[in-house]
Amino acid sequence: MRILQLLFAIMVMLLLQDVHASGLSDSQQCRNNHGHCRRLCFHMERWAGSCSNGRQRCCR
């Protein structure tokens, strides 16, 4: 029974790490492409993707 609890705990930890990493991936990709995460892009900026899992825009 303890082995099953240990395996379950390991699986939960791996799933939580995957969720956390995917939440940062689009924001980090925007910054790596010299972009900024904002709600709205300013006049001379163009929309280049999304940030924060689609809640913001990547403006360049």
TrEMBL record:
<comment type="similarity">
    <text>Belongs to the beta-defensin family.</text>
</comment>
<keyword id="KW-0044">Antibiotic</keyword>
<dbReference type="GO" id="GO:0031731">
    <property type="term" value="F:CCR6 chemokine receptor binding"/>
</dbReference>
<feature type="signal peptide">
    <location>
        <begin position="1"/>
        <end position="21"/>
    </location>
</feature>
<keyword id="KW-0211">Defensin</keyword>
<dbReference type="GO" id="GO:0050829">
    <property type="term" value="P:defense response to Gram-negative bacterium"/>
</dbReference>
<dbReference type="InterPro" id="IPR001855">
    <property type="entry name" value="Defensin_beta-like"/>
</dbReference>
<keyword id="KW-0732">Signal</keyword>
<keyword id="KW-0964">Secreted</keyword>
<dbReference type="Pfam" id="PF00711">
    <property type="entry name" value="Defensin_beta"/>
</dbReference>
<protein>
    <recommendedName>
        <fullName>Beta-defensin-like domain-containing protein</fullName>
    </recommendedName>
</protein>
<feature type="domain" description="Beta-defensin-like">
    <location>
        <begin position="26"/>
        <end position="60"/>
    </location>
</feature>
<keyword id="KW-0929">Antimicrobial</keyword>
<keyword id="KW-1015">Disulfide bond</keyword>
<dbReference type="GO" id="GO:0050830">
    <property type="term" value="P:defense response to Gram-positive bacterium"/>
</dbReference>
<dbReference type="GO" id="GO:0002227">
    <property type="term" value="P:innate immune response in mucosa"/>
</dbReference>
<dbReference type="GO" id="GO:0005615">
    <property type="term" value="C:extracellular space"/>
</dbReference>
